[in-house]
Design brief:
Shape: globular
Largest sheet: 7 strands, parallel
Number of strands: 11
Strand order of the largest sheet: 1-6-7-8-9-10-11
Radius of gyration: 21 Å
Order of helices and strands: HHHEEEEHEHEHHHEHEHEHEHHEH
Mean pLDDT: 95
Strand content: 5-15%
Helix content: 40-55%
Low-confidence stretches: 1-10
Oligomer: single chain
């Protein structure tokens, strides 16, 4: 079926396609985004004979949401401002590497006083935000994401996941202090990014991973206690710059969705709908007028290990349900495509997404 109408034949840019879908307006075809680890991106660059994401997006007919952000000053790496030392861990079969922290830098401290005496949280003075306008200019024609907050992720990186969960349960004063320090920097960092974006940033992330493979990592009441005010502050900030709130949340996180919608998120990612608590038909029916959806194509099992028919079925199922009204869905893998994924499976996913509705 061909659903293109006269009203949307004039859509010519990826940015328009992405923003129309997010705003629940009909689009000329399903928008396509890409997330992948560097090993996969390099393979795609080689396959298409390109050297940058813009050229790859053109070759693959992607509507890639491009990222803009400040550079750390004085030659610092991404994690240096937080004092976190990383190491490269080789994946099975030498297919790629992941960076993992060598140690949680706050794990050895038991009190607020110890942290104050021995650790300094980053400040925005460590970053150069003046590069953002040129980045946005370079991405003309594409939707731009800028600004990112994920306070529980940073908590885990600084103190470790187990310590975070224990702190939340048994050390509320300590937990709120650490969260407050992370939020103080993250809010200022986001604000400066949006300021330098000067109204040209389309999306910003207010993100946390609340889901495990089976259910929430922490209770909804605990999420509200520790993160309620933080979410309200960050979402209000993003919307004050006329940007949409992109919320990335791995796992079986559906029990937290009402809470997130009430806080004001606009886009939900990554849609790991094969896990417990998920039903994407109910998701679209209940939230399809409020939220737009990004992701959905399983990259734990289907993309790396699925047959051709399984990949086609995955793509068609997501389109049939999440794109049933011809809007409100951006098709993408449900997280970074991993290094063990065959290139032909990736190409099949995008080809099927482009051609399915033309049949």
């Amino acid at each position: 079926m061909n659903y293109i109408k006269e009203t949307c034949k004039d859509l010519i840019t990826s940015k328009e396609r992405i923003l129309r879908a997010i705003n629940h307006l009909e689009v000329d075809r399903i928008p396509l985004d890409y997330w992948g680890v560097s090993e996969i991106t390099d393979k795609l660059f080689s396959y298409y004979g390109v050297k940058c994401m813009k050229d790859l997006s053109k070759s693959m007919k992607l509507d890639k949401i491009m990222y803009c952000g400040p550079y750390p000053k004085n030659g610092m790496g991404y994690w240096d401002a937080w004092g976190i030392e990383m190491k490269k861990v080789m994946l099975p079969g030498n297919q790629g590497v992941y960076e993992e922290p060598i140690k949680a830098v706050l794990a050895e401290y038991d009190t607020i006083d110890e942290i104050r005496a021995n650790y300094s949280f980053p400040t925005t003075d460590m970053y150069d935000y003046s590069v953002i306008p040129q980045q946005i200019k370079d991405f003309e024609g594409y939707a731009v994401e800028g600004g990112y907050t994920s306070v529980t992720y940073m908590y885990e990186m600084l103190r470790g996941t187990e310590n975070m969960l224990v702190d939340f349960a048994l050390e509320p004063e300590l937990a709120k202090y650490i969260l407050g320090e992370i939020q103080s920097f993250s809010y200022d960092h986001m604000k400066k990014t949006l300021e330098y974006g000067d109204g040209r940033i389309d999306l910003a992330q207010v993100t946390d991973d609340f889901g495990s493979q089976n259910n929430l990592l922490i209770s909804l009441s605990m999420i509200d206690e520790y993160l309620g005010d933080i979410y309200e502050e960050n979402i209000k900030l993003v919307k004050s710059y006329d940007a949409k709130v992109f919320h990335h949340d791995d796992g079986a996180m559906i029990p937290a969705l009402d809470w997130l919608v009430n806080k004001g998120i606009d886009v939900l990612n990554p849609l790991q709908w094969h896990l417990p608590t998920w039903n994407i038909a109910e998701l679209k029916a209940q939230y399809g007028q409020t939220l737009s959806f990004h992701g959905g194509i399983d990259n734990q099992f289907v993309l790396p290990f699925g047959t051709k028919n399984q990949i086609i079925e995955e793509v068609r199922t997501c389109i049939d349900i999440l794109f049933a009204d011809k809007t409100g869905y951006i098709l993408a893998p449900c997280h970074n495509i991993q290094a063990n994924t065959p290139i032909e499976n990736i190409l099949l996913m995008y080809d099927e997404a482009i051609n399915y509705l033309k049949e």
